[in-house]
Design brief:
Blueprint (H helix, E strand, L loop, with lengths): L2 E6 L7 H7 L9 H9 L10 E2 L1 E6 L4 E5 L2 E3 L9 H11 L6 E4 L12 E2 L5 H18 L4 E4 L7 H9 L3 E11 L6 H5 L4 H15 L4 E6 L5 H19 L9 H10 L4 E8 L2 E11 L2 E9 L6 H16 L4 E3 L13 E11 L2 H13 L4 E2 L3
Parallel strand pairs: 6-8, 13-14
Antiparallel strand pairs: 1-3, 2-5, 3-4, 4-7, 5-6, 8-15, 9-14, 9-15, 9-16, 10-11, 11-12, 12-13
């Protein structure tokens, strides 16, 4: 197949329709509007270590047939996936493993990253050609690594192609909720042992007895104020867990842009008591999948987080036929509420014979599982 390539310095430089035509079957977070919100708001920028280098493949008649969102990075800090490992390798060996091209959803640890392509082409062939061009970019730019994080688990051929092209697979775990053909919330509750079922009902009852109502509101009919409130609550949650001295990943502009151009993918779980809105969680949705992202509250209420972020969204997912819900990163407490552990894979390719040898040696000494390593 005769194709040629072009890199773009940001999502704004690419036609949104072109991008989204290639992302029809992808996670909503792979769509143009999401990347544009991150970049146009300045949450993702060169100042924060992200230089957009989005790669597009074109057919011989100049038709876009493949797209890989990429960032050139000179650091690996705050790369959800294995950025911490890359920083450690850099510091431990003195080799610049942190300088690389990174395929990622910045600040968004969701297992849904993929190479976008037209549905009527040979996806495996285009993926291999895109990966070969990534090799070319890394070699010509003297970059030490290519890093692909949170690869979509539903595309096994992408995983196998990455391994065939010399990438090392690093495994971590994640939690997802699966709709096992539940007919209603009571079916979900019956999937637990009696003691756990009783505790969940008690948690929900304790919230209900305080006169708190929780409602799921689709982003298209959500008032603009919800997009302001979710930023305020995101900020409160950030300060609670990270402290006021560390700059938040996201900003007001990002949430404003969600309200302007991404609200068709948003929905909110809203907790209120009378007219007072004091708890809020933001979700994204597409096809039969629901993605929980940000949460916050104006006052602490026992079990409000579980009710707003887990139980009511699960009931909503069952009613609307969603097959899977991603609750967000981390938290063993998800397991006792019906979420299941799933493997997640990140891929790293090391450039330069010496650098690859040193990196693989250190990984093996650390006992880190790395498939594809030779």
């Amino acid at each position: 197949m005769a194709i040629h390539f072009r890199t773009f310095p940001g999502a704004a430089a690419i036609d949104p329709d072109v991008w989204n035509d290639l992302a029809v079957s992808a996670s909503p977070l792979m769509e143009w509007e999401y990347y544009h919100a991150l970049e146009a708001s300045g949450a993702v920028s060169e100042e924060r270590g992200y230089r957009p280098t989005h790669l597009v493949a074109y057919s011989a008649d100049n038709l876009p047939i493949g797209l890989v969102p990429l960032y050139e990075r000179d650091r690996a800090w705050v790369e959800f996936g294995d950025g911490g490992l890359i920083e450690f390798l850099t510091e431990f060996t003195g080799l610049p493993f942190n300088r690389g091209l990174v395929g990622t959803l910045p600040f968004t640890p969701v297992p849904g990253y993929q190479f976008l392509h037209r549905p009527d082409i040979d996806a495996d062939l285009v993926t291999r050609l895109l990966l070969q061009y990534i090799d070319h970019l890394c070699v010509t730019k003297n970059l030490a690594t290519a890093r692909i994080y949170f690869v979509d688990p539903t595309i096994p051929q992408l995983h196998s192609t990455l391994l065939q092209q010399g990438y090392v697979a690093l495994r971590s775990t994640y939690y997802l909720w699966f709709n096992h053909e539940y007919r209603g919330f009571e079916d979900y509750l019956r999937s637990f042992k009696s003691s756990r079922r009783t505790k969940i009902k008690r948690e929900l009852r304790s919230v209900d007895e305080l006169g708190i109502d929780i409602e799921m509101i689709d982003g298209m009919r959500a008032p603009d104020a919800l997009y302001d409130d979710i930023y305020d609550m995101y900020l409160r949650t950030w300060i609670k867990h990270m402290g006021p001295g560390i700059r938040p990943f996201l900003n007001q502009g990002f949430f404003d842009l969600l309200g302007q151009s991404f609200r068709h993918r948003c929905c909110f779980s809203v907790a209120r008591s009378g007219p007072e809105r004091f708890g809020l969680a933001l979700f994204y949705h597409k096809d039969r999948a629901l993605y929980g992202r940000y949460w916050g509250c104006y006052r602490e209420v026992p079990f409000l987080h579980f009710a707003t972020c887990y139980y009511h969204p699960i009931a909503y997912a069952i009613r609307h036929g969603y097959k899977v819900m991603d609750p967000g990163f981390g938290g063993d407490h998800k397991l006792i509420r019906g979420y299941e552990t799933v493997p997640v894979y990140h891929y790293v390719k090391f450039y330069g014979e010496r650098q690859r040898r040193v990196a693989l040696s250190v990984l093996k000494q650390m006992g880190i599982y790395a498939s594809g390593a030779t």
